[in-house]
Design brief:
By secondary structure, the protein is of the alpha/beta class. Helix content is 51%, strand content 14%. The protein has 3 domains: 206 residues, P-loop containing nucleotide triphosphate hydrolases (Rossmann fold, 3-Layer(aba) Sandwich); 173 residues, P-loop containing nucleotide triphosphate hydrolases (Rossmann fold, 3-Layer(aba) Sandwich), CATH 3.40.50; 25 residues. The radius of gyration is 33 Å and the shape is globular. The relative contact order is 0.09.
Length: 482
């Protein structure tokens, strides 16, 4: 090889390294999945370095346009697993739209936030259609012709009946948390929605568990789908440890206090009923903790306020019903407490899936009654995991809890001079308290008796006048007859 040829080869290799993106790309596992450079840019901006197993398997198949069924644990990155393929395929289409169905309002909002975070470079507009939110604002969003619609089945059916949404251009149909939709009774709505979208479409179904009913729906939705099973149906994250206590209902509050004293991070507590969620929230607040509640009796604004406060650390404890089991994506939840055991094993899997996300360590504690031992055995069979049964610790008395809470509140509570609400009405409150002490219970009782006697006397007088009038009228009629 002569000198000129060597110089030319060196110059060519230098030019190739400067201009060939494939040779100069950084060490990022997302480059090998066929993702467009514009989306890679957004992924790098979010500091995602390597795809999770579900993303590694699902993204290439989704970009290729295959129908897929994915079974993976909660917190495994399923939103990006279908969001990236949908965005990339829609960016190459001029009119096509994507439809994402989710079971809860909270999950719809979180999906929309996630998709917007890694689609800034391609600028695809989205709309969220959920119950409890303003219909007028949703109509305005639909008039802007969004390319992606994220909706709960109930509200989407409302728009279909009003003919305010058109699904004729849907090219990508995604069912997220399909098993939860089955539990919530959305299957009839899903079947009606399927009739409103074209048959020639791509369908992706994601879930943590796969009941037989969902498999039957998938058979009607898809033709020869690719099945991606990252985790066995019913599997729980290996990073989550399980602990169970058998306890009476009246002692659950005191055991919860013990668990909260041992935990300094965010705590998510699940109850079976809305009434119990409200009651427990009030009790936890009396213990001196910052707590919020989320269930279907709360307005959309209240639910959003509770979620935002929990995410930002304003509330350490969030108490929820199963409505939130599929809709909470908060990083760093340290403890999940099943204050009431869930109705079925699938709900247990989704409840504890709120902790131990993205490879972090989490802990799940459950309170059960002795008559629920049969359900516990069924749960262990479903998860193929033996749950640790722990002995009850020494439980503090209610008086001690309130006393400790009082000390905490005294430390946190501002002085009368610092708190304007107390300063403004302090004079009125002291005057009211003085008047209350001045009037004794005996005086109030005597006054009530005198008022009652006066009413009876007035009623007696009116009855007497009425009888005299009747007699006079009768005598007058008798005189006329005679």
């Amino acid at each position: 090889m002569n000198l000129n040829q060597l110089v030319n080869d060196t110059a060519f290799e230098s030019f190739k390294r400067r201009n060939d993106k494939t040779t100069t790309r950084p060490d990022n596992g997302f480059y090998d999945l066929g993702i467009a450079p514009s989306l890679i840019k957004d992924i790098n901006r979010l500091n995602f370095e390597n795809p999770t197993p579900v993303q590694k398997e699902s993204i290439p198949a989704g970009i290729h346009g295959d129908d897929i069924i994915v079974i993976a644990q909660t917190g495994s990155g399923k939103t990006m697993a279908y969001g990236i393929p949908m965005l990339q395929r829609l960016s190459k289409s001029k009119r096509g739209t994507g439809l994402v169905l989710v079971p809860t309002r909270e999950l719809a909002i979180q999906v929309e936030e996630a998709i917007q975070s890694y689609s800034r470079s391609i600028n695809i507009r989205s709309a969220v259609l959920i119950g409890g939110a303003s219909m007028i604002l949703q109509l305005k969003a639909l008039k802007k012709n969004p390319r992606i619609i994220i909706a709960t089945p109930g509200r989407l059916m409302d728009h279909l009946e009003r003919k305010t949404v058109n699904l004729n251009d849907v090219e990508i149909f995604i069912l997220d948390e399909a098993d939860r939709m089955l539990d919530m009774g959305f299957v009839p709505d899903i079947k009606k929605i399927m009739k409103s979208i074209p048959d020639n479409r791509q369908t992706m179904l994601f879930s943590a568990t796969m009941p037989k009913e969902i498999e039957a729906i998938a058979g009607k939705l898809m033709a020869n789908p690719t099945r991606i099973e990252i985790d066995r149906s019913g599997a729980t994250p290996a990073e989550v440890s399980h602990e169970m206590f058998f306890i009476k209902n009246q002692d659950k509050g005191r055991l919860l206090a013990v668990q909260l004293q041992q935990c300094s991070g965010p705590v998510l507590v699940f109850t079976r009923t809305k009434r119990m969620a409200s009651k427990l929230t009030a009790k936890v607040k009396r213990m001196g903790y910052a707590a919020a509640e989320i269930h279907s009796n709360r307005s959309q604004g209240q639910r959003r306020h509770a979620m935002e406060g929990f995410k930002r650390g304003r509330y350490q404890i969030l108490i929820a019903t199963d409505i939130a089991a599929r809709g909470i994506d908060v990083s760093g939840i340290e403890l999940v407490v099943n204050y009431d055991m869930p109705a079925n094993s699938e709900d247990y899997v989704h409840r504890i899936g709120r902790t131990g996300r993205a490879g972090k360590i989490g802990h799940a504690v459950s309170f059960a009654n002795t008559d629920q031992r049969g359900s516990i055995i069924s749960l262990e069979r479903f998860m193929k995991t033996k749950l640790t049964i722990s002995a009850l610790p020494t439980l503090p008395s209610e008086k001690l809890l309130l006393r400790e809470a009082g000390r905490v509140n005294l430390k946190k509570e501002p002085s009368r001079d610092e708190d304007p609400s107390k300063r403004k009405f302090s004079k009125y409150r002291s005057l009211k308290r003085k008047n209350f002490k001045k009037s004794g219970s005996k005086k109030r009782l005597m006054k009530r008796i005198k008022t009652k006697q006066k009413d009876l006397r007035e009623k007696g007088r009116s009855d007497s006048v009425r009888r005299q009038t009747i007699r006079a009228n009768g005598a007058e009629i008798q005189d006329k007859v005679n």
